[in-house]
Amino acid sequence: MADKRKSIFDAIRAAKGAGLTQAQVNDVNAVLDKIGVPKDGGMLGSNGEALIKKWESYAKDLGDGRVQAYPDPATGGAPWTIGWGSTGPDITKGTIWTRAQAEKRFQDHAQEFANGVTDALGSAPTTQNQFDAMTSLAYNIGLGNFKSSTLLKKHKAGDYAGAKAQFAVWKNANGKVMQGLVNRRAEEAELYGS
């Protein structure tokens, strides 16, 4: 998956015999997004970012440009979460961040998951929408669960219909089916298949 766009841009520059303006780079990227060429280095696309942010939501907004940590919705306790589903040892009861801090953490956190998904995929052909859907899933279930999933195995084997069906498997939290997860998985599967 890595460096596909770089190769395309290198070929365009060589054919043109010159560099590209930023407007030309933007135009080429828009075309590559439209036809599903993944971004180099496992970059989460705008569809994936929007999907994660929608389902993680920006909970506990204090209305003054700050956001407060809240307990995990499935367990009512740990791990404490803030912003768009960010967790970690620095997030505890009473943690308050600015929206800018939450956005920075989300971007860093999302990139960690995108990198993990990239590593797990290896050289398996993957469109941007497939990558975004799988990164959204991994963001929610964890990289360990994603890396051992049947969904990943099916995707790597080229069984895209089978992989798409596997999103629905990940609907439980704390041993119970959660309607929010059922709905999220349906949207992830739809993005994966588009």
Description of the molecule:
By secondary structure, the chain is mainly alpha-helical. It folds into two domains: 1-37; 38-193, Lysozyme, CATH 1.10.530. 56% of the residues lie in helices and 5% in strands. The chain has helices at residues 4-16, 22-35, 46-56, 99-121, 128-141, 143-147, 150-156, 160-166, 179-193; strands at residues 66-68, 96-98, 172-173, 176-177. The strands form two sheets. It has a two-stranded antiparallel ribbon with strand order 1-2. It has a two-stranded antiparallel sheet with strand order 3-4. Strand 3 (172-173) and strand 4 form a beta hairpin.
Side-by-side strand order of the widest sheet: 1-2
Q: Per CATH, what is the topology of the largest domain?
A: Lysozyme
Mean pLDDT: 87
Helical content (DSSP H or I, runs of 4+): 55-70%
Order of helices and strands: HHHEEHHHHHEEH
Main beta sheet strand tally, sense and closure: 2 strands, antiparallel
- N-to-C terminal Cα separation, in Å? 18 Å
CATH architecture of the largest domain: Orthogonal Bundle
DSSP summary, beta strand count: 4
Estimate the strand proportion.
5-15%
Number of domains: 2
CATH C-level class of the largest domain = Mainly Alpha
Oligomer classification: single chain
Cα gyration radius (Å): 18 Å
Number of helices: 9
Net shape: globular
* Class computed from helices, strands and strand pairing: mainly alpha
Low-pLDDT parts are none
